[in-house]
Design brief:
single chain, Aspartate Aminotransferase, domain 2, binds pyridoxal-5'-phosphate, 12 strands, Aspartate Aminotransferase, domain 1, alpha/beta, 3-stranded antiparallel beta sheet, 7-stranded mixed beta sheet, 2 domains
């Protein structure tokens, strides 16, 4: 049988034209600087450490303490079959109950203040959740204008990326020594607040390690309610404190409830994590908790976007939130390191003991120059403060004179590293 020629099947048809240009991507990405660690690689690309010793990474906030034995025990005991199951978007009842129990214990909350079933979601680390919250909170328009997302300056890079990619305008709130290293909430204009869709706050803060007090947190919540925006409280360093446990936003909401009942956790989402509390950054486990209306919408959104924690990881996370002993031990180790840092650096570079977290925010004159010198002379890798800050309209960058130093190694290593910083920077 002879097939009739079909011109549509002809191999000599017009050649496919290859587009000259790449596909058009989300051009909001172009508004972002490179991620701080990429910038650091570029800054140090042409610098070779003089010393033969192993380089030491004081740049990344990855706890180096051994994770608690409990983590390994629960993972080892998990039935193999659990690995074959897709994890539910809202986790397991046991996970939510463990987080709920911890919140009540830690912040003295009554059992019904945060709803264990309707007010808590698992996060695969707070990073992704802090990213997604901007997608959740950003409408097309707010007050008839482009929505703003308020971000402390300096800031955790994810806030800016999330805001920009959600289509909002990232608006930076200075958090300098003059403002106590926290944004001045009284300086926000009503005009800006009217178009604000989301405010990120971090306490204890990264990189400065300062803690917001209860009055500050109450003010932030009141602003969110008065202007109809979401307050995202990043509390992932809350368990690593020096002298006193940092207050949490739920405590502030509870105090407001006593003054004006009926609001509960309205407008508030709290983010916390096992990465720092339990030295388990690799577990990728945290939670989102708060306003049940926001949690409901978030659950809906996350049914499209969340990869989720495997059931054994959720079981391990539940066990860790249920145990405070390992956290106390962890905290004590960080205090020893801050003691060592204070002995080596006290009285220089504006040193102060961070009230929470494990970073030093040192004022060294020129953060990039100091970073290059420390890498060249001693193989110590730190991060320039300018990589955490956006420049102001006048071009000034408040982070430029600083470096951030992560005290995540053992005490002896930290002590030696801090002595080296003092020697190299003079
Ligand atoms: C301020 C801040 N928020 C959130 C995170 C995210 O931590 P994780 O995703 O491990 O919970 C970090 C991690 O370094 C951080 O510094």
């Amino acid at each position: 049988m002879k097939l009739a020629a079909d011109p549509r099947l002809s191999v000599t048809a017009t050649p496919v034209t290859v587009p000259a240009r790449a596909p058009i991507l989300n051009d909001r990405l172009d508004t972002l600087s490179d991620y701080p660690f990429s910038r650091l690689r570029t800054l140090l690309a042409d610098v070779t450490p003089r010393s033969n010793g192993a380089p030491l990474m004081l740049s990344i906030g990855e706890p180096q303490h051994e994770p608690p034995a409990l983590l390994g025990q629960v993972l080892a005991a998990a039935p193999l079959a659990d690995w074959s199951k897709y994890p539910p978007t809202n986790g397991t009842a046991a996970f939510r109950a463990a987080v709920h129990g911890w919140l009540c214990r830690r912040y003295g909350l009554p059992a019904d203040f945060v709803d264990a079933d309707e007010g808590i979601l698992p996060a695969t680390g707070t990073r992704e959740a802090l990213f997604q919250v901007a997608l959740l909170a950003t409408p097309q328009q707010k007050d008839g204008r482009r929505p703003a997302v308020l971000i402390p300056n300096p800031f955790y890079a994810v806030y800016e990326g999330a805001a920009a990619l959600a289509g909002a305008e990232p608006v930076f709130m200075p958090a300098t020594r003059e403002t106590g290293f926290l944004p001045d909430l009284d300086a926000l204009s009503p005009d800006l607040l009217a178009r604000t869709a989301l405010m990120y706050l971090c306490t204890p803060s990264n990189p400065q390690g300062v803690v917001a007090d209860l009055a500050y947190l109450k003010k932030a919540i009141a602003l969110a309610r008065a202007h109809g925006f979401v307050l995202a409280m990043d509390e992932c360093y809350s368990e690593l404190w020096d002298k006193a446990p940092p207050p949490g936003a739920f405590q502030a909401a509870l105090a407001l409830e006593a003054e004006k009942p009926g609001q509960g956790t309205a407008n508030l989402l709290v983010f916390n994590s096992l990465s720092k509390r339990s030295s388990a950054a690799g577990l990728r486990s945290g939670f989102i908790a708060g306003d049940p209306a926001l949690i409901r919408a978030f659950t809906h959104m996350r049914s499209y976007a969340l990869a989720g924690n495997a059931l054994p990881a959720l079981a391990a996370a539940a066990a860790l939130w249920g145990d405070d002993t390992h956290v106390e031990e962890n905290r004590n180790l960080y205090r020893l390191k801050i003691d060592a840092a204070e002995a080596a650096l006290g009285g220089r570079y504006g040193f102060y003991r961070p009230a929470g977290g494990f970073f030093l925010w040192l004022e060294v004159g020129d953060g990039e120059a100091a970073t290059r010198a420390l890498w060249r002379e001693a193989g110590l890798r730190v991060l320039p403060g300018a990589y955490f800050t956006r420049s102001a309209a006048d071009g000034g960058n408040a982070g430029q004179p600083f470096i951030r130093v992560a005290l995540v190694h053992d005490t002896e290593t930290v002590a030696r590293a801090c002595e080296t910083i003092a020697r190299v920077l003079g």
